[in-house]
Amino acid sequence: MNQVRRLSKTIFIILLSAPLVQCQKTVNTEIFDRALDGGTILSADAQNSIIEDGLILIREGRIAYVGSKKMAPAYQATQTIDTHGKLICPGWINTHSHAPMTLFRGLADDLPLQQWLEEHIWPAEKAYINPENVKIGARLAILEMIAGGTTTFNDMYFFEDQVAQAAAELGMRAVIGEGILMFPTPSAQTPTEAMILTKHLAETWRGHALVRISVAPHSPYTLSSAQLKACDSLARELGLLLHIHVSETRQEVAQSVAQYGQTPVERLLSLGVLGPHVLAAHCVHLSENDMRIMANQGSAVAHCPESNLKLGSGIAAIPAMIAAGITVAAGTDGAASNNDLDLLEELHTGSKIQKGLHEDPAILSAQDWFRIGTIEGAKALGIEKETGSIEIGKLADLQIYDLHAPHATPMFSPMSHLLYSLQATDLEWVIIHGKPVWKQGKLLTGNQEEIIEEARQIGKQIQSERFVP
Ligand SMILES: [Zn+2]
User: How many A from CA of 306 to the centre of ligand 1?
Assistant: First the structure.
């Protein structure tokens, strides 16, 4: 009797629990903000994982799941983006820019560097660089960068609070540095004043989801040794990145050797201004000893091949730097010396000039350049725990390419396609901090036409002045 009772009790529990289990399954189905459903994911993780027929789930700006659809948990998403047949990768990280210089794009090209600077760029900056115009130029730059798949940029210019505001408003991730020089700039009369502005920026933007601040001494040749040390102390005190131009031209290195008996890198080392917090832009002319120093100090390089080529500065020894153990990232430099802010194009150009220069097609692979444009960029900025690859827990900073263009057909290797065939025009979606900011040729976070028109108006004013040859 007892057995019968026990059996009926068990049956009763089973019967009762059946709908309960189902009900619980519905309750357990997790809800996410966004799902990217299908497609090939190039993750840029430590294993360089490539996931076919993948799924990415995003919650509160972060990647909550990445993997194959087959292994995915039960989920519901507020928005599902169909990414079947598309390529998904981390957003590009532009590690060296002067965003507001979009206003001077093509202003005076094909001129010797000093003439270009002294007769055209500097007078134009003096006349036109004010907070209002900086914001207009920065908005144009951010629109252009988003349209090219960049999800983080590292900037150095004047009135950078305006650049920070433009980035925050348009949903772009940015590292912002007020340019510090020994002579008066449009925003500061002295380096001390520029450092005070930097401190204000750090206080104002502390804890912001998208904007970080750097200390941005322009270069070893535009600051005294004491001023360079003061910048470094500030960066260390506030725990900020130090962003500086280093050894961009042969002339700069020769001048440093003549004046100090040291290359710019040796001088920075002797001043104590190197370390893992330093990102040096250009480094076109490094000696072997310079490379050893940079590697030992854990300082990174922002490689800007198109600017270096256009200004006739030379070609940086990227394979040797990587072999020496230096973190190498990519940057566009300002639009006046490039003349665009398309990071994918930098990677195209950078990869091909090294192959040609070394007469070796195997030197640095598509995958190497993919990492230079993504996770190595994040490392160079000290934000690799937050972004730069598609991994669970990281911020969802992503770009999605369509693969239907003639130049994308057929496809054998997604990695080689991305680096050698695809164009910014193939970009379909850009997502920053989990939020779509670009969809099929349209900015979702601002008025694209208005941004372009504002900049065009400034261009007309500049055109009417003597700065255009
Ligand atoms: Zn620069």
Answer: 12
Q: Which of 358, 396, 351 is nearest to 373 (CA)?
A: 351
Return phi, psi of residue 123, to 5°.
-60, -40
**Ligand 1 centre from 97 Cα, in Å?**
6
CA 119 – ligand 1 centroid, Å: 18
For the cut 70, the answer to whether the pLDDT of residue 329 exceeds it is yes
- Fold entry, domain 91-380: TIM Barrel (3.20.20)
At 406 the three-state DSSP class reads: helix
Distance 334 CA to ligand 1 centre (A): 6
Averaged pLDDT for residues 179-204:
97
**Torsion angle of C-alpha atoms 146, 149, 305, 138, degrees rounded to 10:** 10
Ion ligand 1, residue ranges at CB < 5 A: 333
Q: How far, in Å, is the centroid of ligand 1 from the Cα of 144?
A: 18
The rounded mean pLDDT for the chain is 93
Give me ligand 1 centre to Cα 29, in Å.
Answer: 49
| Half-sphere exposure of residue 225: CA atoms within 13 angstroms, side-chain side | 13
- Mapping DSSP onto H, E and C, the string for 201-252 reads HHHHHCCCCCEEEEEEECCHHHCCHHHHHHHHHHHHHHCCEEEEEECCCHHH
CA of 307 to the centre of ligand 1 (A): 9
The percent of residues in the chain predicted with pLDDT above 70, rounded, is: 93
As a whole number of angstroms, the distance between CA 431 and CA 390 comes to 12
CA of 129 to the centre of ligand 1 (A): 16
- Report the separation in Å between the CA atom of 152 and the middle of ligand 1, taken as the mean of its atom positions: 16
Closest residue by Cα to residue 121 from 158, 85, 79: 158
Proportion of the chain above pLDDT 90, given as a percent: 88
* C-alpha 280 – ligand 1 centre gap (Å): 10
| Whether 454 contacts 123, CB under 8 Å | no
Residues 29-72: tens digit of each pLDDT: 899 999 999 999 999 999 999 999 999 999 999 999 999 999 99
**Ligand 1 centroid to 400 CA: how many Å?**
28
Which tokens in the block code for residue 157?
A: 């210019």
